[in-house]
Structures are given as structure tokens and as C-alpha cells.
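User: Please run a holo structure prediction.
Assistant: Happy to. Please share the sequence and the ligand.
User: Here you go; the ligand is calcium ion.
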Amino acid sequence: MLKQTLLKATQAGAKVLQQYFNGTFEVSSKDTINNLVTQADKEAESAIIDVIRETFPDHFILSEEVGELRMDSNMKWVIDPLDGTVNFAHGIPICCVSIAVERDEEVIMGAVYNPFMNEFFMAELEQGATLNDKEIHVSTKEDLASACLVTGFPYNWREMRNDPVKVFKRFVENGNPVRRLGSAALDLCWVACGRFDAFWEHHLQPWDSAAGALIVQEAGGVVTDFDGYPYSIYQKPILATNGLLHGDMLQVINNG
Ligand code: IPD
Ligand code: CA
Ligand code: CA
Ligand code: CA
């Protein structure tokens, strides 16, 4: 029932995104001018929550736009109704719905769906990860010098531990191709399926990473903070790699 609801909720959110994409919709700014929220974010979120509430009215919900809908439950849904809002608002089809389910504070299921590429990523704890129902694995790249990397930058530059631009510069100076998709959930999924060898970002929220981090781990990758400790979705910095490059990535991030 959990998995069915997860799939149904993800599809419901994606349907809203498809309805609005490249059409007209309300857009407003949050704390900074480019931190956008659209009508599609909000309506996708309502559609997702309606599906979850229908089957699990007593589960806790944490979702980007509405925040916490607290319930006394060991089950929590962590929702990003539209990851890649800036892309969406500019008609760039690199955006997705991302939903994860936590049981006793452990992520046990995650789904990330980009309806514009028809790519549905999914993972269950200890069950592996899939893209459109086919098993996926991280890359086998061992050499950082030829690794293809992806990162993201925060909207708001306050409270950064180490300067994201300096870290970015070090990788660029090393000659690495570094991409910036604009959707952390897809960055993670694209590491999981081997398109990228590693992803790092300084300041993510739980809804950005909850599903994608599980998908990377279940595809054989490693996800930590910038000190190399196991990743929790409630901490901000994230490093996700194919495992083989993890040590080298940490070294560049921290020391250059
Ligand atoms: C953002 C995207 C972006 C990342 C930002 C996130 P949103 O999420 O994941 O790639 O760099 O830190 O906030 O606002 O599009 O849901
Ligand atoms: Ca946002
Ligand atoms: Ca997000
Ligand atoms: Ca979002």
C-alpha cells in the first residue's frame, strides 16, 4: 500500500507540472528574487498531499511549500512537489517531483519522476534502485581526473560553511567537466544511473535530497556529509558518489 501510494502521489504531482509547463502560471519570489515559487509548486503539492491523506490520514508530512503537517506517527512523507522550480519557470524541462517515505526516521522508499523525459527513478531500502523499472547502478569510474561531476548552488549565500564558489573553482581548475542541472533530486538520480560520477552541494533541504540519496545508495553509491559521515537528510551539505571517488572528492572539497 505504501509503494502504491508513493507511485500514485508522484504521478499526481507530475500531472500538475505537465499541465502548467510552458503555459501561464503565477510566479512569486521567496526570500531572494530568484528563489521562485509557482502555482505549479503549490498545486502539485496539494495533489500529492491529497493522495497520501486519502490512504494514510495519520502520517506526518513534511513538504517544501506547506512545511510540517505534524502527526503523532513514526511514518513521515518528505515531499518536494517541484524540484527545479527555476528551470520550470524558464521552460527548461529538467525538473521533477521527489517524494520519500521515512519510517522511524529512516528513509525506506523514494521516488523521483521527471515527466518531461518520462524518467521515473525509484528505490526501496535494501531492494536496489530502478529507472523505469530497470535496475540501475552507479558508474565504475575510479579516476577523478576523468570524472564527470555535477553540483548546485544555494539561492541564499548566508550560512555557508565553506565557499561553494571556491570548491567549484578547484574542480574546474582540475579540468573536470562540472555540470549544474538545477534540480538536486535529479542530480542524485543521475549519479545513481551512472551519468554523473559524483554530486556535491553545500546547502540542501530534506525534501531536495530524501528520495535521491536513497536512490544513490541503493544503486551502489555512497552518500555522506563533507566530513565523510553518513548522510542525514536533516543536514545541509551532501556528497554523493559512485563510492570509488568518494575519498578523492572529499579531499578536493575540504582541502583543495
Ligand atoms: C532547488 C534545486 C537546486 C538546488 C537548490 C534547491 P527547488 O530546489 O534542487 O538544484 O541547487 O539548492 O533549493 O527550489 O527547485 O525545489
Ligand atoms: Ca524551492
Ligand atoms: Ca528542491
Ligand atoms: Ca521545490
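The domain at 144-255 is CATH 3.40.190.80 (D-Maltodextrin-Binding Protein; domain 2).
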